[in-house]
Specification:
The protein is an alpha+beta fold and 302 residues long. It is built from seven helices and 13 strands.
């Protein structure tokens, strides 16, 4: 077989395989319709159980993204039992309040982008195009909007995120009316759950400080940058201890700005669906932004 015929055969085989995979994806995404335009993906969710139908719109906006398609993103949604012991074990323990799933919106959203580079590159033909896996830099913003829940000022609804079948934690950076729009930020994908969180904000703030510090220490940063970030976090902690939330926010904003300035230079900031990269900047920025949300609550007496 000559080279041209071989190349045509490979392309035909890949297209046929891609069509099979795409068809399977549609059947697996029952109740979810995903569209993409530019750096924005929108998933319309409608799930029914008996006489009840639960609807939501999920919007994911990337800072910078490559190879974003509806099939590649891999969004699914499932109805869950709010009282399932396995689910409850994934939520934080009660501390001056509890994290619960509102029965009016018992929906778990999973975003698990496909890793199918073999559809696009055989690894043997030098004329193969590069992998078309989804990748992004820094962070994405995710918003879950549902009319199933009612918004009130200083709403207790929060957006949680966690690895599949693992612990779920607060990533909220804003909660808005309409009826409820909960927004968060991430440097990687996993599962998302809209919950009601009645824990004390000071308790949540302390946990978020701990998570941010652990992520900074886990990142392979140069010693000077890591020391600078830890010092800013220490100053934030000192300010929180005396309820000086304006100073705490100023320290956090400086930390965020420092990470943004170093992202892609000496802080890794790329996520790829083959999971070969560690998006240190994205994870740190996401944790910092949700900590900022809680500090603003405390500053306003909540």
């Amino acid at each position: 077989m000559d080279r041209g015929m071989s190349a045509r055969w490979q392309i035909g085989a890949r297209v046929a395989t891609a069509l099979v995979v795409a068809a399977a994806a549609v059947s697996c995404h029952a109740g979810v319709i995903v569209t993409t335009i530019g750096n924005v993906a929108t998933a319309d969710i409608s799930l029914s159980s008996g006489s009840n139908t639960y609807t939501a719109q999920v919007t994911i906006t990337f800072d910078t993204v490559a190879n974003l398609t509806a099939d590649e993103l891999g969004v699914t949604a499932d109805l869950i039992d709010p009282n399932d012991p396995v689910l409850l074990a994934r939520l934080p323990p009660c501390a001056g309040g509890c994290v619960t799933v509102d029965p009016n919106f018992p929906v778990m959203i999973t975003v698990e982008p496909l890793n199918l580079p073999w559809l696009f590159a055989s690894g043997f033909d030098p004329d193969d195009p590069p992998s078309a896996n989804l990748s992004f830099t820094n962070t994405y913003e995710i918003e879950v909007h549902t009319d199933a829940l009612s918004y009130v000022a200083w709403s207790p609804y929060r957006l949680f995120k966690g690895p599949i079948n693992s612990l779920l934690n607060d990533i909220t950076e804003d909660v808005l009316a309409g009826s409820v729009r909960a927004r968060g930020r991430g440097g990687s994908f996993s599962q998302f759950l809209l919950v009601s969180d009645t824990r004390l904000s000071l308790t949540v703030e302390s946990l978020k400080e701990t998570d941010l510090q652990a992520r900074i220490l886990a990142a392979p940063l140069n010693s000077a940058l890591q020391a600078e970030l830890i010092a800013l976090l220490a100053q934030l902690q000192t300010a929180v201890a005396i309820a000086d939330y304006a100073t705490a926010l100023a320290n956090l904003d400086q930390l965020i700005g420092t990470v943004q300035a170093h992202a892609g230079i000496d802080v890794a900031n790329v996520w790829n669906s083959d999971h070969s990269l560690s998006n240190d900047a994205g994870d740190i920025l996401a944790l910092a932004q949700t900590l900022r949300f809680t500090l603003v609550l405390l500053q306003n007496g909540h």
